[in-house]
Amino acid sequence: xxxxxxxxxxxxxxxxxxxxxxxxxxxxxxxxxxxxxxxxxxxxxxxxxxxxxxxxxxxxxxxxxxxxxxxxxxxxxxxxxxxxxxxxxxxxxxxxxxxxxxxxxxxxxxxxxxxxxxxxxxxxxxxxxxxxxxxxxxxxxxxxxxxxxxxxxxxxxxxxxxxxxxxxxxxxxxxxxxxxxxxxxxxxxxxxxxxxxxxxxxxxxxxxxxxxxxxxxxxxxxxxxxxxxxxxxxxxxxxxxxxxxxxxxxxxxxxxxxxxxxxxxxxxxxxxxxxxxxxxxxxxxxxxxxxxxxxxxxxxxxxxxxxxxxxxxxxxxxxxxxxxxxxxxxxxxxxxxxxxxxxxxxxxxxxxxxxxxxxxxxxxxxxxxxxxxxxxxxxxxxxxxxxxxxxxxxxxxxxxxxxxxxxxxxxxxxxxxxxxxxxxxxxxxxxxxxxxxxxxxxxxxxxxxxxxxxxxxxxxxxxxxxxxxxxxxxxxxxxxxxxxxxxxxxxxxxxxxxxxxxxxxxxxxxxxxxxxxxxxxxxxxxxxxxxxxxxxxxxxxxxxxxxxxxxxxxxxxxxxxxxxxxxxxxxxxxxxxxxxxxxxxxxxxxxxxxxxxxxxxxxxxxxxxxxxxxxxxxxxxxxxxxxxxxxxxxxxxxxxxxxxxxxxxxxxxxxxxxxxxxxxxxxxxxxxxxxxxxxxxxxxxxxxxxxxxxxxxxxxxxxxxxxxxxxxxxxxxxxxxxxxxxxxxx
Length: 730
Known about the structure:
By secondary structure, the protein is α/β, with parallel strands linked by helices. The protein has 18 helices and 30 strands. Helix 15 links the parallel strand 22 and strand 23 (591-596).
């Protein structure tokens, strides 16, 4: 028999090694997974014991198709009475393209027609299709003219071990990816020698449970042995499966007697609660211990035999997030160097540079994919010989003075080059802004790398023109004094080029305030002004906060939300100052709910509503941690339009847990989807530069990428400023 095991991206070679160890024959790694051969027992054993595979397929037919019609004929010619009866329900998935078949739905439809016609012609009755609860699942794959049809033996993705059933929150790391990381980290050998496993940022507990299952010799498919896809298949051999299950139960019972200590901790109570629930459902609550602790707190468990520290820390990327995340990695490194000398460590991150902030020399690194996101696993030996200073960013001494007056600086060659670039930008942008009635736009965005500034122009109703200048942090390779000189050169020419008095030019440094949050005030001037955007009045504040109250790059996204909301009900999540809601109301939204956890921003939003004469009973504001609110969803009437614009990264004290948009976006979208009407539309966007939407995990949605459509003229020099999609339920 021929089989094919699918795997997460990047794990085919590791899966090949696993299947060979399980006794499979002629094992060959391929981009989508691993092909292998053997008896039915080998296919069953892979379903029961593979820690890495997603699905196990039994190949029913392989054929080279001469034309599109041959796909139907090939499937129709199979003796389906060997596999199912007319009383079975079935479902079909399809991948690939060729022979003029460009859409997976069309390919699946051809296979469905062939199966149905077989039974209708031979039995006079056709089996029914049941996408959700099928007795038999088939999978077709087409690569040009090479066609394969397979029976899905597993019937579900094997990463679903069963211990997360009933939990609303999806784990940030799939179980089979976590198992692969533990394999690469040498956990099985460490466990055999009695070494401890510790995850200091355990989150929902995936590493802890997978480590316990590996150390206990527990088959990952054992808990769902009664849910395998082949149990309704007419070719199923019950004795073979029963013997494998009994053997697995005996091995687990023996392995549980020799489990090493496994510990986890996290700084967020919500994460600890979720982890304990999953650990109990996995049957390891008497083995795995978790505690509420910060990364730098002393561990309460006493002496440990050295083992493995494994962690999947957050990896934020937005301006302001960068310093906080780097500080977190420095903390992790200090924890390892002070408390875990003599141990092994494994740290997963999507940003290779962050590894430098651990202050340890890695002995190995491996590439992994967490959903669509490419990550690096760094492996360390915690020994003094591998210690080094973390790559701390050198801060610019803002108190140091440049030995040149501002007047002299404005005449330098660099200042004049900067001024010329600014005039060139203004020439085009002013025409565009006047034509489109845009009163606030970005004039300059680090067009010249030496002058790393973002400059935004605002025309207010009350006080005319203003400039807000944000400085990007200079790279470590740039001399601090030179960076400051260039800043002063740029600032010296702005009043003349823009024809705006210097007292109306506000300067800010784009980095998170130490010891505070993104909501902390910079000043207490309380000067609010009004601009017009997409026909709505928007309140802005240039001095008191890091942000002004409106993100200019999302101008066209907000316009789209407004158009979609005409005559509809809108839900705005992570609403900030609710400018999108205001514009939707102006366009004719019948009602809205805007949710954010910041009291400051909601107060600001309320004034936006009042400035536009909005009915506060029909347009509601709600102060909630959006993540927690979605997990404990109230009974609400579904919304026609939902705008979901989460931050890239958030670890606010007001939140339960750490939000990372790359890691958590699938869960956010799926949970938000429960509040969407059947024909509704979800507008999803974020500002993370390397963000990748996990379309495979969102297969139940129709997805349209609208990033380019929503990129305004003033941000076309920075095409990675945001990404946006429209999602509709299939």
